[in-house]
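Team,

Forwarding the record for the chain on the shared tracking sheet. I've put the sequence and predicted structure together so nobody has to dig through attachments.
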Amino acid sequence: MESAPHIVIVGAGFAGLYCARELRRSPVQVTLVDRHNHHLFQPLLYQVATAGLNPADIAVPTRSFVRRQHNLDVILGDVAAFDLDGRGVILGDGMAIRYDQLLVATGATHSYFGHPEWARFAPGLKTIEDALEIRRRVLMAFEEADREEDAATRQTLLTFVVVGGGPTGVELAGALAEIARHTLASEFRRIDPRSARILLLESVPRVLPTYPPDLSEAARRQLASAGVEVRTGALVEGIDEGGVTVHGERISARTVLWGAGVAASPLARALGAPLDRAGRVEVNPDLTVPGRNDVYVAGDLAHVVGKDGRAVPGVAQAAIQQGRHVARNMLRTLHGEPRAPFRYRDKGTLATIGRGRAVGEVRRLHLSGAVAWLAWLFVHLYFLIGFRNRVMVILQWAWAYVTYGRGARLIVDTAEHWQLLVDEAVEHPDAGALAAVRESARRVPGAERPRPPDTRH
């Protein structure tokens, strides 16, 4: 295999992983590079954030998953730059990986629409670390409210605001309502968790704006029946540690969650290609980068226009199809055949709102309520990678359906852990303490990051 064409894939998300799998029987050498050692099933990440599942239930170690693919090597590392003329991928530690063909599929991150200062007050949901931080904030809000004597402060603690009425926001709001109305309803003695106020704010006239209007209205009704206060046409003007401001109205809330927008990974800029407003690479119809026949972009990092003239949505099924298509085009290139344009096959969209509540469109059939919810369960179990994960998820869902229980309610106080490390480094300024602080700064989301002490003196 040393003389075989070398294909490098950056990103072990849906696009990258399915591209690698498509090449498993081909006479090529594949290198898969990712900053994490696992593949994450992002569609269920909100369930980790709301204590329904554990992180290991929706993630699988990359090496374990591809261990039988003998033409593939996995490298754990951060990509710092690309040497496109020299066909090289440069890692943060200086390591260079040469390629014959390259796929960049590093996904997306949060977009705060020009207000990066909101990030510390309203965490988004893209990684396991994000999910654990959201879970900590939600559960701690109830714990702090239980100890609070002042009624106004207690109500602020029991007010949860979700910004963004897309699928992520709708799913988060519905899960929060279920936690407050059912899971925690009888577990506190000084407060009634059912008095929690959950608000979903969407700046456009309806929730789930990419769905048909009738399904958006069905979602709004189901959210309302679950106890969620839905506000559309509600443009957020400010977020701070005390709440949000909407059209001049102040909403006091200690817990604000962000689901309003995404932006492409900053690595897209390193490709030197034209970008859209969200920072995604405007790829050619065959998913290559303009001017670079040996470089492909797929998944949430790619701006792909479908045959109807609309952008292909940034969903898992689109990324899977793109990853497979890139692999086939790479093989066509190796065989001297022309590359084929990508054609997205929309198999439907589904969004859950909670127990027995969901909406979806499958092959022009509009589903709502329990039928859509069952379809949502089946689809997500089908695409979830790993037999163990499927078994664990279905068992926990079955238990939650019978008992309304959420067994993953562990509070991991990442922010406090960070502060303790900082204090330790200040009191004992040695190299070991400083290294621990720097390591935690890389891992801990949502925590304060004061500058570590100078240990040179």
